[in-house]
Amino acid sequence: MAGLKTLFYEKMTDLSNMMTNPLSTSKFLEEGVLTPEEFVAAGDLLVLKTPSWTWQPGNPKMLQKGLPKDKHYIVIKNVPSSMRISALESRSALSENREIEDGEWIATHINESALSEEAEDIPEIPTTNEKRDTNSDDDNIPEIDLDSLTVGDAENEDEGTLRNTNIVRTRTYDLSICYDQYHQTPRLWLFGYDENGKALTPEQVLEDISQEHVNKTVTIASHPHTGIPQAYIHPCKHALVMKKIIGRMVDSGKTPRVDQYLFLFLKFLHAAIPTIER
């Protein structure tokens, strides 16, 4: 039954991405979502600051409105994953979650000071108008854990700090970020390789996912542009988490910039995939 539900969901979102008009009015501050133009701007900044990320063209059969043909998703390859989630959890390296009254997860400490101060010369993104569908029936999917999130210098982490140069042979992952028009947020995909360069099975990939998120936040499906089955982080809660982070930055007197979105996005998703040394 779960497999049929996932298949139905994928078909529904694929149709939405191809047939509906994308969001055209910026709702970044109010709702934590992106227009396609804002996604491109955020991707451009990520590629500029961390050149190991690169833009890729879209599948001609899956092109989305509002995205340039040559900028449909962003890829980084050979990201190391040296430890399985079971070993990481046994060493108590994962922070304990604190549940608030409404059943959602929230960070107890976030340093938002640097993101709004850096890269001041990068222009903001012009936007226009359109309504967003906010309905979701995925209430059983847990929030991404924000407890150990530190936002501070996310944009300024260079390629050397994002990539471990350890020569020990480890699992590696190719990560890609697409724009999900249905949820109006990015969607992160993962494709893994073992120590010998052989593709990981879906079951092996789940060994690197936080147990709280396995089969809830993380699903296996065909990548929309490569057609290869991959794991992805379910996007239905992304806007809510981003809205919380943005709100905290505003409360601390900072002005979040929409083109810094993907740095924040990758920071909070690390809670679901803590073994991947992004």
Please summarize the sheet with the most strands: 6 strands, antiparallel
Helix percent reads 25-40%
Q: What low-confidence regions span 5 or more consecutive residues with pLDDT below 50?
A: 92-150
Proper CATH architecture of the domain at 33-87 and 167-277: 2-Layer Sandwich
Output the CATH topology of the domain at 33-87 and 167-277.
Answer: Yope Regulator, Chain: A
Given helix and strand content, the structural type is alpha+beta
Q: What is the strand tally? A: 6
Please list the strands of the largest sheet in the order they lie side by side.
Answer: 1-2-3-4-6-5
Distance between the termini: 34 Å
- Name of the CATH class of the domain at 33-87 and 167-277: Alpha Beta
Subcellular location: Cytoplasm
Region (Disordered): 116-144
GO cellular component, one term: cytosol
GO molecular function, one term: Atg8-family ligase activity
